[in-house]
Each structure stands twice: as structure tokens, then as C-alpha cells.
């Protein structure tokens, strides 16, 4: 597996950005060692200050089954839950247009929520992972996790020879109701607003709300209102076939997912984790947030909406237990993670990670944007994401005094 470093395009040196060159070198050495130890398949990152890139590198392999093809700084990668930031942006846009409000009950659009167990859940709860709906599979370290697709059959009538004949429109409505009921199956784990439980199905449901408000497929709405206006030309829900050779893949499942047929109209929207993107495109999105909602003269969000992202939604925190990390007072922004006290970030720093082993971090106090991919098929590498993110924040000189 190659550890040759490929240099991306730069606008200035780390020194010109006030960032220590030695910190970049240590970061490269750490990533190269993880690749040599077969903990990572590859790694790439982009650091910018004031919209000017001062570090952009890639190393390792693009394909799991061909170690000689290098990962490059402009390679395409599945960004998984970073898609949630695009869903959040769409929801805030609709709020600004007066088409919804954050405390509005979900049952106003999705009638399956008009039941005692779910009627108190609102848009804000879905955005903040506080709805009480079942969290992601394995969240509680349950030994035998399952997903909604494994119980969806229980809400169908395909087995019934006397099932009614349905028109195409009725068939779409019927199949949508099946996957919605499957997502709601079982009792909530808590009442809305009682605890933080990472819940991707909440964002799938937000995507469905976006579709019902706009009359557009969620993916088309994101394309026309966010990706195209920002010029994010290498960000896709479905990667064009001629670009498949530029997509980073870590296993056979990702390869099959990339080559899958287009999903039918009734399928759940890919609003919880369906996007592919590049370091440069993620940087554009981060710059839009850093610029309080605008990029290259195009306004995507209002300043007030962007300010909400870094505001602790429950200032005293909420209990959270996720994948073994227990917190009695977890503090979080509006669908964003906030810099913690033991990290070198200022209070307004926001970031989000994705299961594609990636992250985007926006630090308005340092005018800093960090995006990175650390693809791997290894289940857990504790220093993979957190150390890279923290190392990026620690690279600045303080009062012109060098420090490690």
C-alpha cells in the first residue's frame, strides 16, 4: 500500500496562514503510519484560512482491491452523515420562506405520527436527535441490532391474494407508509427532549417532509437549491458512471452501492447519509457557513440561521449514551457537534462526521475550515478522526510562540 503523498492545490503556505509547518509534517507522519499499519486504506485533508487553502494532501489507496491506484486530493468519497448538514440547510431555508417552523409537529405532514406515542415529536426534535425514535442500529451496543428494513414486511399486504388493486400514485403512497411505519415500529426510547440519541431515521423523515412541502424529490431539491448555486460540481447522490473510477471504495458493499440502480419514487429519501463529495466541494459548503450563509455572492442561508448552528440547543446538556460513550450532560448545536472543553477549539466551532470516515469542521474564530477523508474497512480506529481533527486545531501559533 503506497504512502506517497500527493500534494493538492495551495493558495498560500502554512506559515502565511499562521499555521506551523511542523504540525503539518507530524500530521502526515501520523497518517502514513496508520496506513502502513493497515489501520487506514488512505487519508486526505484540506485546511484553509480566509477561503485560502494552505494544506491539501492525499496518501494511500483509492480502491480496496487495487492498492496501486492512489487516493488523490480531488477523489470522490461517500460522505455518509455529512449529508445531514445539507438536510439541515434545506429545512432552515424552508423555515426562512415561512413554509414550516421548527417546533411544528411532524404529524402536520406525516399522518403516521398522529398517534399518542409520536404526536409530540416536532421538527426540532428530529434535527437535534432528541425525538425519542429508535437510534441508529447498534447505538446502545445491543448484541443483535436490526434496522427498519428487517421489519418492513410486517406492514405490507403482498402476501394477501385479496389485496386491493392500486393505481401508480396509490402504490407510491402505500409503499411510503410501509417504510414510515417500520421506522416508527416499537415504543420510543424516551419522551421528546429527554435525551440525545443519534437517529438517522429522523433525518430520513425530514427528507420526506421536504418532499411533501416542496413537491420535489429531496435529492432534486438539494441539487437545485444548494449544490448547483454553490458550484459543488463533484457532489452527487448518484455518481455518474464515467466518474466511478474516481470514487474511493473500501469494500465490496460500497462498490455494489455505487453501481446500484436508481431508487424508485417511493423509496426513502437519502437525507440521512446519501451524498458523495470531495474535499474541495466540502470546503465550499464550509465556506458558505463561515461566511454566514453566502458564497461567491450567492446566499443560501440567512445570517441568523447560521448563527443557530453553534448555539447549544440544551444549555445544561442532555443524557446521551452512544456506542459506549456515556454522557450525563451532552451539549450540541442544531444538528452539529460543538467544540468540547478538552479540545483546542473556540466555543463557536461546529463540525460533523460521517461513517464514510470523513468530517467537516468550521471554526469562525480562527477563520478555519478543515475537511478530511480517512477511508478504512477496519471497524474502529480511535485515533483516526479525533486526532486528525484535534491536530488541525492545534497547529496555530499562539502569541508567536511555537508549541507542540
**Structure annotation, total helices:** 10
Strand content: 15-25%
Number of strands: 14
CATH topology of the largest domain: Beta-lactamase
Structural class: alpha+beta
Termini separation (Å)? 30 Å
> Which series of helices and strands comes N to C?
EHEEEEHHHHHHEHEEHEEEEEEH
Radius of gyration (Å)? 21 Å
CATH class wording of the largest domain: Alpha Beta
Question: Low-confidence stretches at least 5 residues in length (pLDDT < 50)?
Answer: 399-404
Mean pLDDT: 92
What number of domains?
2
Oligomer: single chain
Main pleated sheet: 8 strands, antiparallel
The CATH homologous superfamily of the largest domain is termed DD-peptidase/beta-lactamase superfamily
Shape: globular
Annotated CATH architecture of the largest domain: 3-Layer(aba) Sandwich
As a percent range, the share of helical residues equals: 25-40%
Characterize the structure shown.
- The chain is α+β, with helices and mostly antiparallel strands and 404 residues long.
- It has two domains: 6-82 and 234-321 and 332-393, 3-Layer(aba) Sandwich (Beta-lactamase), CATH 3.40.710; 86-214, 3-Layer(aba) Sandwich (Beta-lactamase).
- It has ten helices and 14 strands.
- It has helices at 21-36, 83-96, 123-127, 168-184, 200-214, 218-230, 252-258, 279-290, 303-309, 386-393, and strands spanning 6-7, 42-49, 52-63, 66-70, 77-80, 275-277, 294-295, 298-299, 318-322, 325-330, 337-338, 350-354, 358-363, 368-373.
- Strands 1, 2, 3, 4, 11, 12, 13 and 14 form an eight-stranded antiparallel beta sheet that branches.
- The model is unreliable at 399-404 (pLDDT under 50).
